[in-house]
Amino acid sequence: MSTVVLTYGTFDLFHVGHLNLLQRLRDMGDRLVVGVSTDEFNALKGKRTIIRHEDRLRIVQGLKCVDLAIAEHHWEQKADDIRKHDVDIFGIGEDWKGHFDELENLCKVVYLPRTQGISSTQLKQAMSALDKVHLDELKQALGTLSAIVERFD
Ligand code: C2G
Questions:
Q1: Protein residue with its CA nearest to atom 7 in ligand 1
Q2: How many Cα atoms are found within 13 Å in the side-chain-facing hemisphere of 66?
Q3: How far is 151 from 46, CA to CA, in rounded Å?
Q4: What are phi and psi of 5, to 5 degrees?
Q5: Residue 150 C-alpha to ligand 1 middle, in angstroms?
Q6: Is the Cβ atom of 29 under 6 angstroms away from ligand 1?
Q7: Ligand 1 atom, smallest distance to 35 CA
Q8: pTM for this entry
Q9: β partners of residue 111
Q10: Which residues contact 94 (CB under 8 A, 6 or more apart)?
Q11: Residue 45 a catalytic site member
């Protein structure tokens, strides 16, 4: 009797926090099904993603620990997915603790610790900070170069 595990996420700018969660969930059973939030659903969640849904779905499907990646279109599809895929365990990061307890009627619900120090939001902030630092360095370099050029004019 195989144990099926189900989770959902945006998985934007896929990183090791996502991987840790998916691998831990896969280790809890024999088959892992992952719902990847569509761009439209992310808009509902108030999340702006960098990577489009088609590519986020392919990345998740391409993982060794994932058996099936499906689209997550809305909050209410979980119960149907649990029945459709004969799910034994629904798991998600503990930032969602308590949000999906009602699914206990259908399957076991687990909330797993998040990986500290990494998130898609932090990655976006780091990239925008790099852009800012880069621009400041370029401005300084430009100032220095302009001063040198003036001396030779
Ligand atoms: N996660 C984690 N550690 C991190 C970052 C994320 O364990 N450092 C987990 C989250 O707890 C979540 C999963 O990775 O279980 C995916 O995170 P997101 O892509 O941010 O997904 P989210 O927007 O929370 O979507 O219906 C449920 C939602 O679709 C969940």
A1: 114
A2: 22
A3: 53
A4: -115, 140
A5: 54
A6: no
A7: 29
A8: 0.88
A9: 92
A10: 111, 112, 113, 114
A11: yes
Q: Is the CB of 72 under 6 A from ligand 1?
A: yes
Q: What is the pLDDT along the chain (153 residues), one digit of tens a residue?
A: 899 999 999 999 999 999 999 999 999 999 999 999 999 999 999 999 999 999 999 999 999 999 999 999 999 999 999 999 999 999 999 999 999 999 999 999 999 999 999 999 899 888 888 887 788 888 899 999 999 999 988
Closest CA to 120 of 35, 23, 21: 21
Half-sphere exposure of 39 (CA within 13 A, CB side): 8
| 3 ligand 1 Cβ < 6 A | no
Q: Which residues are CB-contacts of 6 (< 8 A; sequence separation ≥ 6)?
A: 32, 33, 34, 35, 78, 81, 82, 85, 87, 89, 90, 91, 107
Q: Please tell me the chain's helix, strand, coil percentages from 3-state DSSP, rounded to the nearest 5.
A: 50, 20, 30
Whose Cα sits closest to atom 22 in ligand 1? Answer: 9
